[in-house]
Amino acid sequence: MHLTVFGATGGIGQEIVRQALDSGHRVTAVVRDPARLAATGEQLEVVRSELTDPEEVRAAVAGRDAVLSGLGARTRKEAGVTARLTRTVLGAMDATGVRRLVVVSAGPVGPVPAVEGLLDRTARRIVTALLKDVYADLGAMEAELGRSATDWTVVRPPRLQNKPVTGVYRTVVGGFPAKGRFIGRADVAHAMLAMTGDPGVVKQGVGVAY
Predict the structure, then answer these.
(1) Fewer CB in 10 Å around end: N or C, the chain?
(2) What is the pTM of this model?
(3) Which residues fall within 8 angstroms of residue 199, CB to CB, at 6 or more apart?
């Protein structure tokens, strides 16, 4: 496949690019600072963009088989950027007829796990309160996806870790894995790439955790 990756210099975005190239895909990585992108290869195209020029973004997605997004606020001060930039991506996809989109959100934005103990429930409430602006931003992004014509999938991980890819994790379509407290960024990327070609997760939120 020919993929476009937004947020390609973030922790998850870097892994998406690396794993996609390792799997033989062609990748267009859209970044603000190309120097921060570690991946290289003949199948890699790097596009420098602040995502402020709609024509520039349209050119980055036109003709691609799918778009993957690791966009997200890195701090509470950046809350609001995820929904805004995703809106730009959605506009470019609509203009160019590209439909498949897989994005990363966060576990607390989705439904509460069917089975949740007191410890997990308390931790969820504390984290949600501390990062309420960031989660509100992600919620607004998910609402934008729901109103769009894209074949979207939202991947919702819990607390992220820097660990090597394992390919071993749990997923719940429309929910969240019970007692799912951690997952490595590399495995989130692995899940997003696997879901790109899965029609069973189109227009669904998917919880993913160890």
Answers:
(1) N
(2) 0.91
(3) none
